[in-house]
Specification:
With 275 residues, the chain is α/β, with parallel strands linked by helices. The protein has 9 helices and 11 strands.
């Protein structure tokens, strides 16, 4: 009886989980907020803490300590946290090395992060860079965390067309979260204001690649001339191969090149291909 009880205690032992969060951007107003995917990752960690006794959550953010960033980060604290670790570094610094150094020192068993940031580069390479530096396995498109037993975590990965795949990964590991994960709970104002930041200074290193870029507001994309609505690849191929019927077209004959170019230019303007 005693070996079975000891094995059950080992299976139910909690783990250390580190959740990486970033500053998000509201799609309409552009104001700073908590990032949607990072909030979903924190929601998964909080659900694991409730279901697996002994689980310890630490939340990390690498960036400058500013008023706008602090108000956005408190959106995570309002989800039920008492504190957050802020790896302080100047604007434009590379957050990967600071995160790698901190994770290597604290040694969490599981790292949860969003698949892509809403500000800055937004390339989605951070989880892969962390996995390469730390030598840990990486699972993307996480839908849920089912259980942790004897150093192995069972995950449910989201696949295209609503499919799911169950994976077993040896810890330590890194998982990235996108819209397939459960939506994050609302942030409470009172707990968010009472929570604290544990500021940890780091050795900043400038992001040389980002410094060479020229950032500008995104422009409206051109309107597509033809939108094919089909449920399968076969239907899309048939729609693309079918000969379309002309509606409201204009046949130009015996016109000069200037008149033809002017007619084409007018059509592209009407279809909002050109602005």
């Amino acid at each position: 009886m005693q070996p079975d009880l000891k094995q059950q205690q080992q299976q139910q032992q909690g783990i250390d989980v580190a959740v990486l969060v970033s500053i998000g951007r509201h799609p309409t107003t552009g104001r700073a907020r908590r990032a949607e995917q990072d909030a979903r990752g924190l929601e998964l960690a909080l659900a694991m803490e409730a279901e697996l006794p002994g689980t310890r959550i630490s939340v990390l953010h690498a960036g400058p300590q500013a008023d706008d960033s602090e108000s956005a980060l408190r959106g995570y604290l309002g989800m039920g946290l008492e504190s957050m670790t802020l790896l302080e570094q100047p604007e434009g610094s590379d957050a990967i090395l600071a995160l790698v150094e901190h994770l290597a020192a604290t040694s969490p068993q599981l790292v949860i992060t969003g698949a892509r940031a809403e500000r800055g580069e937004g390339s989605g390479l951070l989880p892969y860079a962390l996995a390469e530096h730390l030598g840990w396995p990486l699972v993307n498109s996480l839908a849920s965390i089912e259980k942790v037993e004897n150093g192995v975590v069972t995950l449910l990965q989201a696949l295209p067309r609503g499919q799911r795949r169950r994976l077993k990964v040896r810890l330590p590991a890194i998982i990235s979260v996108d819209e397939a994960a459960p939506a994050a709970r609302q942030s409470a104002f009172g707990p968010a204001r009472r929570a604290t930041f544990a500021v940890t200074p780091t050795t900043p290193e400038a992001d040389s690649e980002l410094a060479q870029w020229q950032l500008a507001p995104a422009r409206k994309r051109p309107k597509r001339l033809k939108i094919v609505k089909a449920a399968s690849a076969r239907d899309r191929f048939k729609a693309a191969a079918a000969k379309s019927e002309g509606k409201g077209g204009q046949v130009l004959t015996d016109v000069t090149p200037e008149q033809g170019a002017e007619a084409i230019y007018k059509l592209l303007k009407e279809e909002e291909v050109l602005r």
